[in-house]
């Protein structure tokens, strides 16, 4: 490699030094621009990754809520309660049909008040906290007031099951509330 009067010889070819310096500056500028673009792409990729993780968490939560709703609807069906959608459809059909009867009569409702004695069961603080947490996470029970929550917690009893034993069995009434812990 030689340098004679502003000329540069490289691999047997002669280049003008000023032209080579100009090309080097252009290449450095391009490299800097590519670095900036790369940093921006990395930032956008991280942002997209965070958004994706957030959406996945949201979808997971919605699936959990959907499973809870399906479970409740399944319990209603198993108890012989009518399907909500079919009931609404029947009401729409009946409303469209012209009937001759304009009045409805029925027996008046007499409310009976009954006193129910609640049986309280002793439990340690961790068991109480576990039950409270389960109640607060349940969509149907999370809005209970303090007294209702306390009553449920104090009336629940501990019951152990063997590994592999079924806790909830088909065709049983389903009147019990379970909190599972391992």
From TrEMBL:
Q: Which PROSITE patterns match?
A: CNMP_BINDING_3
CDD domains on file: CAP_ED (cd00038)
Q: Where is the Cyclic nucleotide-binding domain?
A: 140-182
Q: Which domain of life is it from?
A: Eukaryota
Q: What's in the keyword line of the UniProt record?
A: cAMP, cAMP-binding, Cell membrane, Coiled coil, Cytoplasm, Membrane, Nucleotide-binding, Phosphoprotein, Repeat
Residues in a coiled coil are 17-69
Q: Where in the cell is it found?
A: Cell membrane; Cytoplasm
Supply one GO molecular-function term. cAMP-dependent protein kinase inhibitor activity
Write down any Gene Ontology CC term.
cytosol
Stated role: Regulatory subunit of the cAMP-dependent protein kinases involved in cAMP signaling in cells. Type II regulatory chains mediate membrane association by binding to anchoring proteins, including the MAP2 kinase.
| Family the UniProt entry places it in | Belongs to the cAMP-dependent kinase regulatory chain family.
Name the UniProt record assigns to this protein: cAMP-dependent protein kinase type II-alpha regulatory subunit
Q: Which organism is it from?
A: Bugula neritina (Brown bryozoan)
**Origin organism lineage:** Eukaryota, Metazoa, Spiralia, Lophotrochozoa, Bryozoa
């Amino acid at each position: 490699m030689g340098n004679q009067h502003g000329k540069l010889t490289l691999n047997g070819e002669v280049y003008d030094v000023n032209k080579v310096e100009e090309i080097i500056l252009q290449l450095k500028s391009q490299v800097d621009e590519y670095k900036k673009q790369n940093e921006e792409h990395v930032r956008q990729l991280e942002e997209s990754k965070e958004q994706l993780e957030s959406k996945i968490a949201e979808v997971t939560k919605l699936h959990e809520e959907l499973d809870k709703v399906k479970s409740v609807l399944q319990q209603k069906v198993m108890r012989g309660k009518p399907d909500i959608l079919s009931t609404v459809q029947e009401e729409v059909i009946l409303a469209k049909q012209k009937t001759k009867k304009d009045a409805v009569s029925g027996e008046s409702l007499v409310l009976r008040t009954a006193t129910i004695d609640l049986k309280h069961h002793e439990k340690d603080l961790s068991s109480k906290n576990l039950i409270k947490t389960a109640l607060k996470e349940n969509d149907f029970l999370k809005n209970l007031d303090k007294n209702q929550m306390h009553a449920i917690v104090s009336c629940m009893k501990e019951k152990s099951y063997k590994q592999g034993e079924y806790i909830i069995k088909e065709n049983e009434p389903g009147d019990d509330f379970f909190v599972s812990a391992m």
